[in-house]
Automatic annotation (TrEMBL), chain A:
<protein>
    <recommendedName>
        <fullName>Roadblock/LAMTOR2 domain-containing protein</fullName>
    </recommendedName>
</protein>
From TrEMBL, chain B:
<protein>
    <recommendedName>
        <fullName>Roadblock/LAMTOR2 domain-containing protein</fullName>
    </recommendedName>
</protein>
<dbReference type="InterPro" id="IPR004942">
    <property type="entry name" value="Roadblock/LAMTOR2_dom"/>
</dbReference>
<feature type="domain" description="Roadblock/LAMTOR2">
    <location>
        <begin position="40"/>
        <end position="129"/>
    </location>
</feature>
<feature type="region of interest" description="Disordered">
    <location>
        <begin position="1"/>
        <end position="29"/>
    </location>
</feature>
<dbReference type="Pfam" id="PF03259">
    <property type="entry name" value="Robl_LC7"/>
</dbReference>
Length: 123, 161
């Protein structure tokens, strides 16, 4: 799982990163977490955002779009939450979850870096 | 003398060496003093909170059914017995590895889950779910439900049998 630790560590090195997790959306369980604070339990965030990903996947299916999610951005008052499903074969059913501080992060840069991390992640 | 006769045999323990019979607390099953409406509310709240939960079974560690809210045709009595079996296995693991009291055990099959949570020293909560259930969310919510159920069961005078 060295690769996973490296990926989570580089996700945490993104400017303004608060927490990162790799989540299995078939069960809502985390494969790994990094960062987080006393108030923010990333396993709770993972379980909750699993429902977000599932709802969007179901919507795409209902609309017969025959497409997939590249990423999901959720903007809060003080944070950005980025969800990025893994696209390679070994990462099927998983997504990367990243929380960044709105004031300290560059959204375009964070998205770009998260894509690079996702592409290099081989499980 | 055949080869079978040479095999080691267990010898029965002498009458004096047997441990004294254990005193078990009376079963919670069938106790009319339990707050069934409040228990039922907790069980339905858990089913509503997490999509994919077919129902919950509250059973005793003795394998007897206390109450349930199952919606499918699974037998609640069987599930209470299965829950106690899973508890027994978990408890033994806890003993052998020195890991303390049983908390939770989950079985995942091709088309669904059965999770068993410790409620109190006497009761267990079993939850049946579909395969698509968000099991991490279940693991986050069910222990809280179990703790509230423990409070409801606590203080109820056990039936003397």
């Amino acid at each position: 799982m060295g690769n996973l630790d490296v990926a989570l560590k580089s996700a945490m090195s993104i400017d303004g990163a608060i927490g990162a997790a790799l989540v299995d959306y078939t069960s809502g369980m985390t494969l790994g977490v990094a960062g987080g604070t006393g108030e923010i339990d990333l396993t709770v965030a993972a379980a909750g955002n699993t429902d977000v990903v599932r709802a969007k996947l179901r919507t795409i299916e209902m609309l017969k779009l025959d497409d997939e999610i590249e990423d999901i951005l959720i903007t809060l008052g003080s944070q950005y939450h980025l969800i990025r499903p893994l696209s390679n074969r070994t990462g099927k059913g998983l997504f990367l979850y990243l929380m960044v501080s709105k004031s300290r992060a560059n959204l375009a840069m964070a998205r770009h870096q998260l894509r690079a991390i996702e592409e290099s992640l081989e499980l | 003398m055949s080869r079978v006769d040479k095999l080691p045999r267990r010898t029965p323990a002498g009458a004096g060496t047997l441990p004294p019979p254990r005193k078990l607390p009376p079963s919670l099953a069938g106790n009319p003093a339990l707050p069934y409406p409040a228990i039922g509310q907790e069980l339905s709240a858990l089913r509503l909170q997490i999509p994919g939960v077919h129902g919950c079974v509250l059973g005793g560690v003795d394998g007897l059914l206390i109450t349930h809210n199952l919606q499918n045709d699974a037998s609640p009595d069987d599930l209470a017995a299965l829950a106690a079996t899973m508890f027994g296995l978990g408890r033994q693991v806890g003993f052998r590895l020195g890991q303390g009291d049983f908390q939770q055990s989950t079985v995942r099959n091709a088309n669904g889950y059965l999770s068993v949570y410790a409620v109190s020293r006497q009761a267990l909560l079993a939850v049946v779910g579909t395969d698509s259930i968000n099991v991490a969310r279940l693991h986050l919510h069910a222990p809280d439900t179990a703790a509230r159920l423990a409070d409801l069961l606590d203080g109820v005078t056990p039936t003397t049998s």
